[in-house]
């Protein structure tokens, strides 16, 4: 390979990393509202072995589905999502539904990126280096530095940023790196696929 080719490869890689950093960017063109047709609803504490294997570290706090107890949500993971391990959560008529903290913590980001990327979004730091992100909100009820408890409202579902319809874009991160998502005690998301999960948050 010539030096010139090396350079273009390097530039291409740079471009790919830049796109990867673009949070909720192009991936969201792939978001499909989807029919809300819950079959095989999984309670986040009962779990479903078919959903995948646990990769959760021992240090992982119990991170709950970020919605009111007893509500059922469509959880979609898909190829092309940015970042790849994020999940899009929605249900019929979800615009304005309360978004709750997955676990206790401190708000580390509360930003509005206009019509780009995550739009209006919040990040919460939990124990042991774990953080969660909540994007495309229609409004937020916390600020950077706010202490929140598990199940406390932090905002409402919306369609801000690069989003094609109302839903919550959600991530679980460990030391800044997105991780496979686990809800409750043992509900592991399938990559890639759709699951219907009932919240135990704040029950
Ligand atoms: Zn998303």
Can you put this structure into words, describing what you see?
This protein is mainly beta and 203 residues long. It is built from one helix and 15 strands. The protein has one helix spanning 3-21; strands spanning 42-43, 72-77, 87-90, 98-100, 105-112, 120-125, 130-137, 139-140, 147-148, 153-156, 168-174, 177-178, 182-183, 187-188, 193-198. The strands form three sheets. Strands 1, 2, 3, 5, 6, 7, 9, 11, 12 and 15 form a ten-stranded mixed sheet that branches. A three-stranded antiparallel sheet has the order 4-10-8, with no helix packed on it. The radius of gyration is 17 Å and the shape is globular. The termini are far apart. The site of zinc ion has 6 residues, from loops.
Brief synopsis:
With 203 residues, the protein is mostly beta strands. The protein has one helix at 3-21; strands at 42-43, 72-77, 87-90, 98-100, 105-112, 120-125, 130-137, 139-140, 147-148, 153-156, 168-174, 177-178, 182-183, 187-188, 193-198.
């Amino acid at each position: 390979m010539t030096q010139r080719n090396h350079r273009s490869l390097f530039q291409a890689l740079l471009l790919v990393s830049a796109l990867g950093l673009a949070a909720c960017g192009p991936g969201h063109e792939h978001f499909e509202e989807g029919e809300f047709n819950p079959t095989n609803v999984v309670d986040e504490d009962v779990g479903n072995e078919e959903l995948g294997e646990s990769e959760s570290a021992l240090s992982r706090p119990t991170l709950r589905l970020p919605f009111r107890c007893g509500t059922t949500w469509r959880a979609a993971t898909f190829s092309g999502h940015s970042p790849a391990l994020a999940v899009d959560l929605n249900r019929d008529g979800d615009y304005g539904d309360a978004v709750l903290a997955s676990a206790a913590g401190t708000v580390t980001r509360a930003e509005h990126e206009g019509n780009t990327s995550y739009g209006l979004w919040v990040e919460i730091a939990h124990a042991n280096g774990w953080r969660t992100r909540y994007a495309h909100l229609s409004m937020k009820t916390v600020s950077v530095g706010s202490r929140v408890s598990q199940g406390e409202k932090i905002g409402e579902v919306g369609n801000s940023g690069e989003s094609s319809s109302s839903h919550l874009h959600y991530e679980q991160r460990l030391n800044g790196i997105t991780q496979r998502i686990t809800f409750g005690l043992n509900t592991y998301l399938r990559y890639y696929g759709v699951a219907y999960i009932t919240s135990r948050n704040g029950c």
